[in-house]
Amino acid sequence: MLRTLTLGACAALCSSAALAQLPDPLERALSVSLNDPVAQRVDVMVGDNDGQITVRIQEDADGASHYTLLSPSEAGLNESEREMWEEMFLSDEDASEEDEEDGFGGEDFDAEDLRRIIGSEATLLREEDGLLIYGFTPQAFPDDEDEPDGAARRMLDAMTGEVSVNAQTGHVAGFQMILRESVKPNFAARIEDFRFVQSYVFDEVVNGPRLESLRFNIAGSAAFQSFDESMSVDILDVQWATPSAGGAVVDAAESH
Length: 256
Description:
Blueprint: H1 2-7, H2 26-31, E1 39-48, E2 51-59, E3 65-71, H3 79-89, H4 111-118, E4 123-128, E5 131-136, H5 150-157, E6 159-166, E7 172-179, E8 183-186, E9 189-203, E10 208-222, E11 225-241, E12 249-251
């Protein structure tokens, strides 16, 4: 469900790139075997241009997700915050089983999706703050396996990408796709700014990265109307369920 909320903000297309041997240690970071825990509770803060809300997501014994608005109070929601609360969370409670994800888990770091985005080539750009930072030309948009059409390809060709690997733990610490120049994906639209940035934190329960934060922004004009939309997601706290049914939760590292 959480991946649908975050990556759904970026209406994107992506291609299926052949699995290629990337430079070490990036290749190792994308090849690590991860645990697949289930979160019993997640506190998440979601924001847009006009406000932000903090929500607790809890799973019951049957795997159904339930949502509690932590802040602001429901009476204190502005129009934008109310729309986020109702459309992103309350509407999910009515979703069919076919539409519902398996909840928030280790799979929210998708190494194969990141491989599709990076493609077959990446170059070490620099080392800073304990991170190895590789540059690449994005070959795909996140969370979509379709072949890019002409508009999507024009967007991708105008972008630059970076992926960082923690030199100490060897896990992916984050990646970003940023538009380096204005682009017209079609005759009726011009995109002036596009940014998609994800950060990960090393989680011992996962034995690898889990999502810590996401930032997305797109600005430009379409049909003679300007737009500038942004979205942010921050995972504030995760409590993992133990393997035994109904067992105690396991605290994950807090992210702020």
